[in-house]
Design goal:
There is one protein chain. The chain is built from 16 helices and 11 strands. With 427 residues, it is α/β, with parallel strands linked by helices. A 7-stranded mixed beta sheet has the order 3-2-1-4-5-6-7, sandwiched between helices. A 4-stranded mixed beta sheet has the order 9-8-11-10, with helices on both faces. α14 packs antiparallel against α16. The longest helix has 28 residues. It is globular, with a radius of gyration of 28 Å. It starts with 5 loop residues before the first helix and ends with a helix.
Length: 427
């Protein structure tokens, strides 16, 4: 026993006491697919004393690309039995309990009560919400993991901070009603996420480190690759001015061959600037800033997700919706055709946005604030109109300057109209 876990117990964060905790601990893994395969292997290898394997599915050939726990000879077997067969060969120190019926509303509570920690490795919303409800009821933490294509995420729910799955995804009815869709996934992604889930479980059971309690860890491989490419280009451009620090960062950015140096790399080739793309991203930045301003004005913590409703037009940067969701901590973005009088509204260019407050608004204070903004914009519009009514200015000023003033006029008029409608809705 001592020799088996020697490389683990020599870590001061674990030691012999931590290893004893692991051997006395019990973990239920809900879903023994891509995530569950990786998590089960590492929790077994770490020496967890008892592991529950809950999955109602059978092994299929299409599973083998990412579910590394199974072999071709196990195709057609119940996953719980096939997993126990492989894991028992890995360690005789762990007891395995098969749950071939999976987790259902009828059997979940007595099963969950028998374990110290739950790992959510399933692939459907109803089961996740079920785990959320029951773990909250019995005050049991659970480690959530989910994947898709090149993307994955991990977090800990119902920990000391009390954050729940429903806080991150409040739209339970809509999500549970979604039909299950089979989509592609890079085989290594569930391996990474499942391993991180096992790491979070070990940290919790041994009592060391900072768990992902109230924090969401995400990976997005295409975005990571593109970001590293951007940094590589920037470092090459900066190298003549900051040779030492750029060399050091460049060496750590990606694996390098012996003797390879940024000094002998080619400078990035100049490309044509996409003004339209930059303009759309500027609109995105303005929307994120406006959402954060709403939070500040209404004293809403950044950790609390919001819903954003938008009356979409040509100035709505729909292609950057994922950026809006990430940077604004938005649970969802809904398109609508109607104004929401109970929401805090704002305008970016000609696009109207609304953040529902659900009874959180002080109507009188909101009316005063909007009236002040309206008064300022009306004064601003008057100054612009005065300038444009001056024939000497219009005829002598550069065409670009006059066009800019006309744009200011149109934007101000649109914002004034939106503010008047919001004020009317509050009466």
């Amino acid at each position: 026993m001592e020799e088996r876990y020697a490389r683990q117990t020599m870590l001061p964060e674990i030691g012999e006491q931590g290893q004893r905790r692991l051997s006395e601990a019990s973990v239920l893994i809900v879903g023994i697919g891509g995530l569950g395969s990786a998590a089960a292997l590492y929790l077994t290898g770490a020496g967890v004393g008892r592991i529950g394997l809950a999955d109602a599915d059978t092994v299929s050939k299409s599973n083998l690309q990412r579910q590394v726990l199974y072999t071709e000879g196990q195709v057609g077997m119940p996953k719980s039995a096939a997993a126990r067969e492989r894991l028992a060969a890995l360690s005789s120190h762990t007891a395995f309990e098969c749950r071939p019926e999976g987790i259902t509303p009828e059997n979940a509570r007595p099963i969950l009560d028998g374990y110290d920690l739950i790992l959510d490795c399933c692939d459907n919303f109803p089961t996740r919400y079920l785990l959320d409800d029951l773990c909250a009821a019995c005050r049991k933490p659970w480690v959530h993991g989910s994947i898709g294509e090149f993307y994955g995420q991990v977090t800990v729910f119902n920990g000391r901070k009390g954050r729940r799955y429903r806080d991150l995804y409040p739209d339970r009815k809509a999500l549970c009603a979604r039909p299950r869709i089979t989509q592609g996934v890079l085989g290594t992604v569930p391996g990474v996420i499942g391993t991180l889930q096992a790491s979070e479980a070990i940290k919790y059971l041994c009592g060391f480190g900072e768990p992902l309690d109230g924090r969401l860890f995400t990976i997005d491989l295409p975005t990571l690759e593109a970001t590293c490419g951007f940094f590589d280009d920037l470092l090459r451009l900066l190298h003549p001015f900051m040779p030492f620090v750029t060399e050091e960062i460049w060496q750590d950015l990606a694996p390098r061959k012996a003797g390879e140096s940024i000094m002998v790399q080619r400078m990035p080739e100049a490309r044509e600037i996409d003004e339209a793309l930059l303009g759309r991203f500027e609109l995105t930045k303005e929307v994120v800033t406006a959402v954060r301003n709403v939070r500040k004005q209404k004293n809403i913590p950044q950790k609390d997700p919001l819903t954003l409703r938008v009356i979409a037009d040509e100035n709505y940067p729909a292609e950057y919706a994922p950026v809006l969701q990430k940077m604004g901590n938005l649970s969802q973005i809904e398109t609508t055709r109607e104004k929401d009088p109970s929401a805090v509204g704002f305008l970016v260019k000609t696009t109207q946005y609304f953040v529902p407050m659900e009874g959180m608004i002080d109507i009188e204070a909101e009316r005063k604030k909007l009236a002040g903004e309206l008064e300022y914009l009306e004064g601003f519009l008057a100054s612009v109109q005065k300038k444009l009514s001056n024939e000497r200015f219009v005829s002598s000023a550069p065409e670009k300057v006059v066009a800019n003033e006309r744009t200011k006029q149109a934007d101000a008029e649109a914002k004034i109209a939106a503010l008047r409608e919001q004020l009317a809705a509050l009466k």
